[in-house]
Amino acid sequence: MELEWPQVEPGVLAFLQRVFAQPWRLEAAFDDDQDCSDLLRSEFPLMVDEELHDSVAALMTWKVESSRPLKRFRRGLVSSALFVLPQPNVLNLHDEFQRLTKTSVQCILEMHSKRKQRKYREDPPDVRSKRFETERRKYSLLLAQVMINAELPVVGLITTLDDPGAAWVHIFAARRANTLKARYKIWKPFERWLELHRGYLFPKSVKDVIDYVQHRVDEGCGRTIPESLSITLAMLEQLGRVPDVMRISDDPLWKGHVKSWTAELCEDAAPRKPAEMFTVAMILALELTVVEQSEAIPIFAKALAWIVLIMIWGAMRCDDVQAIIPRRSFLSNYGLKLILGKSKTTGPDKVQKEVAVHVFRTISLSGADWLRAGFTIWEAEEFKFHRDYMVMEPCKDWSKVRRKFVTPAGLSSLIGKLLSTLGCPRRSGLGWELMQHVLLLPDGLESFFSGHSARNFVTSVAAVAGFSRDERAYLGRWSMGMVASEEYVRTSRQVVFKIQKAVNRCLVEGTNGPYFEDEAIQRLCDAAKATGANPNRVRKRHTVLGDWSGAHSLGGVFPTLEVVDGDWPELDGDVVGDIDLADKVATLARKEALSSDGASKYFVTISRRTCLRRLHLSGCFVKPDRCFEVVHLDQVNSDDFDTVCQGCKKRMLTECGKEVELKAEAKVLGQPRVLQIHERQAMLRAVEAIHGTLGDQECPSTDYLSIKAEETECNEPTAAPLDEILSKHSSTNAQIQSAVDSSGHIRVTRTKTKGKMPSTTEEYRRKEAMKRVLEGYTLAESLLAVIRDPDLKEAYFTTPVALKAALSGVPGVGSGDNSFWGSVIDLDSEEEHTTTDNNTGGTIDQQVDDGVTDNADEVQFDMAACGNAGRPISVEWDRTQKEFTDGFGLCSPTRWKPSQRGVHRSDVMKQLADRTFSILEEAVTAAIPDVRKEAFRLVTGKLDGSPFSDELLAGVRSKWFSLLADPLDAAIRDDGQPFFLRALSQWLRVFDDPDGKWLVDEEDSFSTGVCLGVEKPLPRSPQVCRPKLKHRRLDDTEFAAIAQNYPSAQISSKELEEKFHEEEALGRMHPSKLGVLRQQYGDKVRVAAMAAIQKPDGTVRPLHDATHSVMVNHAIKYRDKIDCPGPAEIASVLRETAETQEAPFCVSADIRAAHRLVKVRNSDWGYMCCKADSHSETIWVNRTDAKCTDTFVVLAGWELKTRRWFALRLGPKEVPYLFKPGSGSQWASTSAELLASLTALHLFGWLEEQRERRDIEVSLFGGTDNRANESLTEKRSTTKWPLMGINMQLSSSLSRSRLSLGLRWRPREENVEADQLTNEDFTGFDESLRIVACWDDLQFGVLDDLVQTRESFVLEKAKAKELAVRAPKVRPKKFDKTPW
């Protein structure tokens, strides 16, 4: 049976016959309209929709009509296959397989799928031109269909041609695809309107177009609609060969209406908004991104940043970028040259076939060679593949690229994503560096800029620099329409280079008219504020221009980059000069030899033509290896040079001031001034010039040279101990350590590596022998000489023995029982041993003290008053005997042996100690069944929380208080202190503790706040500490009550402010203003400079410098010296462990921020001020008087009119949602303040149910002095717990009472009364006006329900997590099939 093929167009039929071979195979290839459409679209992607629909309809009709014959044919085919065997030796296996693969429907569909996947993975090299042509053909045919439907005169002419399809495409001449698309989009709605309202598809009179546009204007259309429709109508009438007398587009009535409508719409429409300009900070960030060596920035981000910079300096659109021909772009000493192919203004069908974009070679704001770095990236193998567009599509993480074309709109989106990840540039010395972790455009501000923003920058700055409109037209290639094409080609590069260099100089030095970008930054800040972002943060990050040297600029030297001959070969078009490879290699070798000639401080470049000698500092942007002739110098005379480099001259002028600042910061960090490499090289060369080459063991260490250089500069050279004079070889194991000094500040120091000194006569002889070897003697001769040397024997053996023997009878000197030879071994006196041991024993003060001696207190330590028997334990280290030091003071019982402790205590002392121990033992036994096991859990870090419950601790305290003289007074805990100081004071008073009076008895005690030591001397405790005889010599600096932060703190101002806010929440700091502080503390306000140390986790450790400028530390003198255990004590413990065969262990505990928990009296707070940002008006005051503690909160308030007041102390039992295990209630200060407001409304009677609405403004004082609740009442919502629950209860109560509440923040200084109430200080308040209330009497039903609901939710959530952990892991399916 012969089957027929479907009746379709010849081209489609030929494709179907070629692919399917038989009609029955074609019938099985599709099931419905969609399958048929996909099949045709895969082969004919350019087919017009109308033709596609016609072909699909014909195929589906053929499928239905042929279904019965095809069914019979398949049945017969199967029967024949079952009963007819193939003849042997007739079929070839390979040929049959090829036939099956080429005729099988399944194989064909698989090939089709793979081809689509291949097309998805990468585009062909000419994808841009093909896509352009496809779009143009598509809309040409659609507009042609408009003419056909309208039956315009040109239709009859085109139908007579041999190829009407091609004619319809060519009729639109050289119009771009976007132009045709815009014309079709504007005409299609008009055509539908005509069909619905008039019944035809093309206007027949001017009435049709006027009525339609009037309808659009009444609805509110865009201002370009009338003009665009008029242009489209004129094009269709012109191309459709409509006679002139019949053209509606030329009708005066229609033209008049168009002008009138356009004027009306322009008047009512918003003003046309130009593209927002990039800021200078963004250009700096883009340059630094291109040259960044870190792998944290993906390669495509660097490449795209280079493209954006090219768009900025070349005034290019995204469409222009994709018109660049990559293979014809090159970089030379003159600059970058890019060739634009087919674009909006260029192409084979334009007057200007192609146009060049130029960027001058040394254009740079940061001094980085971004042009060369970016060009190298685009020349890499991954980017350098054949294509007719510039920017390709990146992979997901931007680490690689795909060979896929990116549309101009897609390129604009990629640029927006790049801008959202730009780091913030910051000034580093004389250069710039990129802070990648600080975003320049946070909170989605990249959407503020458009694809034309880059094009708008250079032209705007050029206008400021004084360039005319005609000159600026060369930047964006607008002048191609003003002058002849030949003239543009000849003059464009010179004009563009002139403008670019002037703009670069204007921004760097401020010449040619300074450029102010305040307006652009203000618009950016307004956009940030509109989106809820912080405008001040945005302004700070984008403000990089300043008044440097009297000009508003970046403060650099132009040119910031210098390129010399030989850097890049000059290429002109496609002509490449022949290069002698041998000469090139020799030249590069000579330059490399010059550049590696050692690091000297100066170098002089000599010009090839004029022999001008220019002096440079090392590190200058001029590279010695790129210059014709270079002379390196360590010392410069006036005859060595003719002129000085301008950039280096400014560095020389600022180096002195910068060095002073670095020296001060080095003092704060406890380090010697950094010795520059050129300084060290100069010293080394001077010595080697006389003594020859020195090795690492003969060169002094860098630290020692730094100290000596600093002493020499100050004209105060001092002799250093011999063990501190180290070689470079012996100083490689220094470490950084941090410790808390005696003033309570964290001090970062570097451990000093000390050399081993000779201690015996044999070691002295070896030392002298090595000296002789270095002088040229042999080792054997040197050893024999030092053995027979009488001077060495007398200095190191005979004289010490004689002196020891002579002094053996002096009281207090010598070893007493030791034999003569024992005295020989112990060469030094006992007094000298003590001094030496104090230095090596870890005493904090003596490690840093030098110079100034203070008078000691006359009161001496009374050992008998300690109540122990005998003397303290004696320990030995390095043949030196000393008393044991445990770090707890001279009177510490653990300095004596256990059998000697407390022998002379009274019966009252022993009885109190035994009863106290019994209470503690009983509590520990009740809470911890197995003490040994719990101790091991503690030291192994497996103890998550305290084993003692609050009820148990309360019982222990109650029993302990009953042992004291005044139990009621003992139960009082002073404000701002976590301990029961009064109970401790009573207990210590029984034991005659010498230090117990400082808890509560003295005026400046720990309960009221200790004295800082500025206004009066710090007290002495002779029974606890030895007198401090020496004090550090602090730097003498010029006094300034308000100091500026160090650079390390200024660049971390954001992190410092976050740290201060954390301290504020804990009650240790509070913000204020200078005027308020001076009103309270007078001239005692000192704002210290801050430094910052970066931690590994990204946070910073603040360092408070109370020495320089403010000179607070100069007035503080410590009269007590702190002794700490040292090597002698550690050796003694180890020795005792070995003797007793016991294995003791030590548990080290640390109290976080212990030095910040000491309460300082209020009158000294003015001395402890600082700033997170030197430019901010906010001053942070250190204090320690928080209102929320770990065990209770105080809700208090008073009514201004009636002076009624209340104060409620609440604990975890009443308000458990304000407490967290281990965190207390410090974290919930804002919630506690809002709860206090709600309680005040209840107790003052404002929450009674009413029918009429009332308004009241309530002023409240909060413990943390923040505006959180004021903002909450404005916002009326929050998602933070428990603030959310309290806010809902407040809203419910206010609604029932018909009451509106507004909370107004009041500064701490304006509400002293509320501060008293939160401190439970009721002085000045009438007790008869106090509202006595119980927490249980307050009805907070909504809050209670929410608390219960949340508790049940948290419990269920924990159970769900536990079940999820136990449940078996099931790997989810990649795809789930659905009925759809």
Task: Give the SSE map.
Elements: H1 10-20, H2 23-27, H3 33-43, H4 49-65, H5 67-83, H6 93-103, H7 105-121, H8 127-150, H9 153-159, H10 164-170, H11 177-197, H12 206-219, H13 225-239, H14 252-268, H15 280-291, H16 299-314, H17 318-322, E1 330-331, E2 335-340, E3 355-360, H18 370-378, E4 392-394, E5 401-405, H19 408-420, E6 423-428, E7 431-439, H20 457-464, H21 469-472, H22 485-509, H23 518-530, H24 535-542, E8 546-548, E9 551-553, H25 581-595, E10 602-606, E11 613-617, E12 629-633, E13 643-644, H26 646-668, H27 677-691, H28 702-713, E14 736-740, E15 746-750, H29 761-774, H30 779-788, H31 790-806, H32 820-825, H33 830-840, H34 844-848, E16 852-853, E17 874-876, E18 881-883, H35 907-927, H36 931-939, H37 950-962, H38 967-970, H39 981-990, H40 997-1000, E19 1026-1027, E20 1030-1031, H41 1047-1050, H42 1053-1065, E21 1069-1072, H43 1074-1081, E22 1087-1094, E23 1100-1105, E24 1120-1121, H44 1127-1140, E25 1169-1170, E26 1179-1182, E27 1193-1198, E28 1205-1210, H45 1229-1243, E29 1254-1260, H46 1268-1275, H47 1283-1296, E30 1299-1305, H48 1312-1318, H49 1341-1366
